[in-house]
């Protein structure tokens, strides 16, 4: 049975097996999961309905046996199309008891009355349920001990299966085709917010299911930041335009960007672009099992700042069911790369105060080294009509 | 100063004044906010960067004086374009201290060493930071007492200003124009997933900044559910197609749907569509200050099930900075409507087991009654090429 946009059962069974081995080691009787990516990881439950924050969703992963979904009735029919057989639902929102007693019962049943329940509590995690209900749950399931999941979800999700890698490669290809068509929609005189809208349309036309993320900027010889919404200012000759997108197909993200020069670039812009490409190459060169996240940071930073450390913070991160997930390319991250890890290489340069350039590619770690998932950009910044 | 996509300072000052009046009444020395909508409500900080779950963001709203933003350095330049002057940032992610001590200091400074800090803990809320950091914060700011925010954020955000209503009306108009163009992209033989992609493109072309939400379904005489992703099955004569979208412009959502018949509808489909329209009319008729959310539910439910209660759960909800927010049209919600509340009317019918139809419109409550923000659909289901 393959749920809409999901994988065959074997994929989820393999994930469950790996999780249960880690749970045994960590002494956990169950995992309690509440977020979209964590729940989908074990079930294949794929829907954009998570955009509504009203209803909580729960998955109980026991130390042995199959997962139990404790979810609002509105999702029961879709969950029934996954391999999860034990689905318990209530009509949400219920102001008296929004799934809490149903969840307490499922946890107690699967973890035992005094079991230890792992909940992702570390970096990048959050508990997607009201704190008041979290407190109620702890009171209601009084014998259970709730602890950190010992990083199990983070470790599991960091290493992708071939099926997952194929998904990420597919969406990278889609975004790559959209980037190749940017000259159709952008050039001197076109307002940046119009470029943003048209670029999202290109992504959809090329096959993205949706475009959860688009950021970027445009300015003379660089842009001020990479998170602001697009304004109505028209592109002008001499601008550097950057578009950075996280598109999704069948639940997996790409996350890479491209820079463009509006009209011929000046020498500084051309050189900066090529330095970013060289930095990506330097990291890709050493990206293989055994190297650390910090090693990749330093390889890029050496070329970018001569080893001074980048103000931009991190120079890349893990990627998969979320736009960003898992490791960070920063000096403090000593995670050892493993085959199957998917990450972004994202070097940045400050050309002048308030003028930056950022470049980004997506790779998967293979035993033989870096395998590019995004259609690798070369030296020579692409030029738009100026 | 108006931040990109935001409002003039006066809007945020008015919100702060109302919040501080409520905080005085509730005995709160400060509010601690962690989610996109809550932080944007007081600041105007608008970015799609929230798609990345890696970094936590914090806003401290003191009982008197101005808000303090405690945020990752990557957002400092954009926050500086808002009216918030006190911005404290760190280079995130920091594995040793991801903003916790900075936040503890800001809270202690603004709430006093033994102040009571309100955090949204009720229905529909969540704490967007790792639980482990939440525990660290409580240990670090040991004298502070963290309590529920007494529903302050929920109550504040429920009643929209004229500036907010204008935003919601604008995006409703954009989606309405996209819906009017559905005959250009859908008809017998077109796969549903292609319709989904093309519809999002129409929304962008008509002026949406992005399309965070699109759901729907298609099937003979109704659809099975409204949250599944679209599959490749081509539309066929006799299908009912439904598209339900949450598009965004300048940070505000619409949330409404339209049904279409592929080829001429049969009598049951035509009648069901008109019954949904009548249900909307019945609710709109009584939607004015003083009526309750439950009253609107019952007005619709009477027409839909003869008062048996709908299996669909709720028949509408609040709307604004989120796809769904605030009140629910369910029997248990006795919230009194107030002028300025924006909500959806969303009646549903089960035509046969596993065959439903849902219709949705958006209204704002005025002293004189319901004012439609979505271009109100009439009786007579629109027909696509069959």
TrEMBL record, chains A, B:
One of its GO terms (molecular function) is metalloexopeptidase activity. Residues 15-159 form the Creatinase N-terminal domain. Pfam families: Creatinase_N, Peptidase_M24. This is Peptidase M24. Residues 167-364 form the Peptidase M24 domain. It comes from the Bacteria.
């Amino acid at each position: 049975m393959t749920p809409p946009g999901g994988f065959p059962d074997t994929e989820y069974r393999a994930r469950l097996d790996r999780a249960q081995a880690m749970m045994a080691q960590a002494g956990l009787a169950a995992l309690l999961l509440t977020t979209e990516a964590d729940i989908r990881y074990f079930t294949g439950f794929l829907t954009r309905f998570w955009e509504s924050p009203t209803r909580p969703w729960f998955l109980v992963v026991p130390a042995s046996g199959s997962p139990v979904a404790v979810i609002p009735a509105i999702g029961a029919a879709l969950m029934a199309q996954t391999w999860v057989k034990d689905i318990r639902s209530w009509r949400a929102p219920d102001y008296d008891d929004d799934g809490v007693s149903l969840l307490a019962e499922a946890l107690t049943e699967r973890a035992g009355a005094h079991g230890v329940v792992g909940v992702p509590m570390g970096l990048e995690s959050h508990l997607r349920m009201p704190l008041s209900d979290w407190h109620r749950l702890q009171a209601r399931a009084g014998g259970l001990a709730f602890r950190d999941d010992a990083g199990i979800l983070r470790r599991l999700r960091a290493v992708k299966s071939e099926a997952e890698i194929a998904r990420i490669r597919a969406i990278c290809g889609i975004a790559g085709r959209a980037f190749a068509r940017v000259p159709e929609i952008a050039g001197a005189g076109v307002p940046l917010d119009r470029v943003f809208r048209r670029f999202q349309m290109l992504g959809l036309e090329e096959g993205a299911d949706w475009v959860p993320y688009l950021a970027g900027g445009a300015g003379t010889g660089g842009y001020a930041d990479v998170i602001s919404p697009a304004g109505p200012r028209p592109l002008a000759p001499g601008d550097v335009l950057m578009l950075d997108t996280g598109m999704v197909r069948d639940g997996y993200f790409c996350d890479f960007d491209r820079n463009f020069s509006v009209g011929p670039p000046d020498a500084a812009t051309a050189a900066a672009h090529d330095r970013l490409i060289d930095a990506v190459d330097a990291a890709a060169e050493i990206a293989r099992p055994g190297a650390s996240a910090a090693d990749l940071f330093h390889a890029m930073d050496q070329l970018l700042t001569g080893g001074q450390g980048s103000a931009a913070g991190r120079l890349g991160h893990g990627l998969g069911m979320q736009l960003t997930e898992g490791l960070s390319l920063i000096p403090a991250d000593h995670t050892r790369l493993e085959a199957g890890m998917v990450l972004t290489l994202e070097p940045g340069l400050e050309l002048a105060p308030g003028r930056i350039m950022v470049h980004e590619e997506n790779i998967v770690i293979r035993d033989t080294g870096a395998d590019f998932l995004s259609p690798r950009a070369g030296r020579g910044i692409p030029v738009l009509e100026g």
